[in-house]
Structure formats: C-alpha cells, structure tokens
Design brief:
Helix content is about 40%, strand content about 15%. It has helices spanning about 10-20, 55-70, 85-95, 115-120, 145-160, 180-195, 210-225, 240-250, 265-275, 285-300, 305-310, 340-345, 350-355, 360-365; strands at about 40-45, 75-80, 100-105, 125-130, 140-145, 170-175, 200-205, 230-235, 280-285, 315, 325-330, 330-335. The protein starts with 7 loop residues before the first helix and ends with a helix.
Length: about 375
C-alpha cells in the first residue's frame, strides 16, 4: 500500500514545538542541545554517474544543507559507485572505518548491500536509504512516490495517444534495472494504468539503467514489432529515452512516437521542447536532498521529534517492516509545464534550455 507524503502542516508543527521548548531534541541546530554537536560527518553514497542528477543536484544540495544546519561545522564525505555494487560495498566499508556519524545510502543493488548495512548498524552508525530502498536494518528511507512516477508516465503516454488509444496500439516498455527496487515500483505503477488499455508488445528490464543497453533493447523491439507498428514507448528514465530515440533514428524513424522519461535532465527537457520526447517526470531534487540532509542531521543529533515529523510515512522492504519514511510527490513535465516546473524551481533557466539549436522550438511553445 502506498502512503501519502508528509504535509507542510507536519513540518510547521515541528517548528511550533521547537518554539515552545519541547525537550532538547527539537528545534534548529542553533537552539538545540543535541546528543552530538555540529561537528558531524555525513557519509553520502550515490549509485552511478550515467544520470547527471547525482553530481549536479543531490550531492551539492546535501552538502550545502548539512553545512547550513550545522553552522558550517558539519561535512559530507561523498563517494559515487559508478554502477558497481562491489565498489559501493568497498565505499561503505571505508565510511564505517572512517567512523562517519550517519550514512545516506543510495544503493546500486538493494539486496547486495545488506551485509554492509548490518556492519554499519553494528558499528553504531545509522543508515538512511536515499532515493532507493535498501534492504537490511536501515533506520529511515526517503524517496519520491515511485509508483506514482510510473502512473504519471503511463497516463501521459495514454494522453499522447489520445482518443484512438486501444489494444490495437503496440507499446514497448523499457524498464529500469532489476537491482533497483524503484524500477519495480515504476513498472508496477505504469502497468496499473496501461494494462487493458494498450498492448505491451515487448518489455525489457535494462541492465544498470544504461542508455546504450536501452538502445540495444529497442533495436531488438524494432526488429520484432516493426518500426511502423510501435505506437509509443514507456522509457523509465531520460537516459534510456535517449537510447530509445537513437535506436529509432538508426531504424529510419523521422517522426518519433510518444516516448516517456523521468528525471527532467537538461537534454531530455530540450527533447521535450522539440517533440522528440513526449514527457519526463519532474522530481524536485532540492526537496528530496534537503529533507535527506535534515533527516541525517536530526538523527545523529538526537532530535527525535523533528526526525519523526520528517518521517511520517511507513514503507516495507523485503527485510524490514514499517520503515520510517518520507515520500516526495512528483509531476509530469511536458511542453506546457516546463515553466511551472524546472524553470520555476530554478533547476534550469530559459537560457540553459533555449540554446541556439533550440531557440526556434522554444519560441514556438512560448518559452523565451
């Protein structure tokens, strides 16, 4: 069962309690008398580099928020596994050896990381699963509402097909990596909307989320179905959408069928502007990353009421039930909503998107 994400009211409640001086476990870092001071180290383990969001958004936002919450005394020790579960296991072990105070873990392989999570727990280091739900004795979890992501993608795909959508329409599903539990949730959400409304003519689970793997899989789908018989493509993220488009172009397709995506990467937003890609899912990385930093600092500083207010959702992993969690909401990014999403939130400027190559397409949709 999917839970609803924490409301603004809950955060307001936390601040009100702090203002009333409820215990020394609430309030901001300047006013509290936490169990550990501001001189803390947050370990941040991110999974891969193919998706530009991790280096461009997640890490710097978490780093800056930790600094803000600790009066610039706290720091972030960062490592990226570049899609290698073995490398991430070594990085996790190194952070345990370095005695970081808390670990934010975005797992390459949610199951393979179990032993490392147990070792951290044995060493007294809390582990918060970030973006992907890791197995093992994690203390909390923060991510986007992943089933909703798949639902939004599928609804957008159906909307693009319009009134003619039906089981005669053949769809290719380009799902994410089997080692990522989020990919399973994206797929479940998408199938809940697509099943019975279109025909899933071919479906792939894409190793490591790599665009080149998606491109190869799409080439197989084209050979199997025929390039003129593909009404749309469910691509689980923007990188794979790019691979799908390359495969279609290589097959001689000049007018793309509607193709979904996720993450609102800059090149994907530009493809949405030109119509090569129909949509992406915009996820507010600042909201997720800042909340993760708040959770990490609150956890290690013993601010239990603040931590509980940040984690009012509950989720289950294959190994742990009722994990305190926060699920952040998402929205569709199409030509009509670029201004209201990535531009309004300051992720990109119009100048970032509308470079010389895209100026005419931007002007055509009123983006200038």
């Amino acid at each position: 069962m999917r839970r609803i994400a924490i409301s603004v009211a809950a955060s307001t409640m936390t601040l009100s309690l702090a203002g009333c001086g409820v215990l020394n476990a609430t309030g901001d870092s300047a006013s509290a008398s936490p169990s550990k001071g501001n001189d803390i180290t947050v370990g941040l383990l991110l999974p891969e580099k193919a998706n530009s969001r991790y280096g461009k958004f997640d890490y710097p936002i978490i780093r800056d928020k930790v600094a803000e919450l600790t009066r610039k005394h706290g720091k972030v020790e960062y490592a990226n596994a570049d899609a290698s579960a073995t490398r991430q296991a070594d990085q996790l072990q190194q952070m345990i050896a370095d005695k970081v105070d808390v670990i934010l873990l975005d797992a390459v392989d949610a199951h393979a990381v179990v032993d490392g999570v147990k070792k951290a727990k044995d060493a007294g280091i809390p582990v918060i699963a970030y973006d992907r739900l890791a197995e093992g004795p994690i203390d909390a979890y923060i991510s986007f509402d992943n089933e909703l992501v798949g639902e939004v993608q599928a609804r957008s795909l159906l909307a693009a097909l319009g009134s003619q959508a039906g089981t005669s329409n053949k769809i290719v599903m380009m799902n994410g990596s089997l080692t990522d539990p989020n990919a399973k949730q994206f797929k479940q959400g998408a199938l809940s909307e697509l099943t019975g409304k279109v025909t899933i003519a071919d479906s792939y689970d894409t190793k490591d989320w790599k665009p080149e793997n998606a491109q190869a899989n799409m080439a197989k789908a084209i050979a199997k179905i025929g390039k003129g018989n593909i009404a749309g493509v469910y691509a689980a993220n923007d990188g794979m959408a790019g691979g799908v488009i390359k495969a279609l172009e290589a097959a001689g397709v000049t007018h793309m069928p509607p193709i979904t995506g996720q993450d609102a990467e800059l090149d994907a937003v530009q493809r949405v502007v030109t119509g090569e890609q129909y949509m992406s899912v915009y996820k507010s990385y600042p909201d997720e990353a800042e909340a993760a930093a708040q959770m990490a600092v609150a956890k290690i500083q013993g601010k239990d009421i603040q931590f509980d207010a940040l984690t009012q959702d509950k989720v289950d992993s294959p190994t742990t039930k009722n994990i305190p969690s926060k699920l952040v909401q998402v929205s569709a990014l199409t030509k009509d909503s670029i201004k209201d999403t990535v531009i309004e939130d300051g992720i990109y400027t119009v100048a970032d998107i509308c470079t010389a190559k895209y100026k005419a397409a931007c002007a055509a949709i009123g983006l200038k």
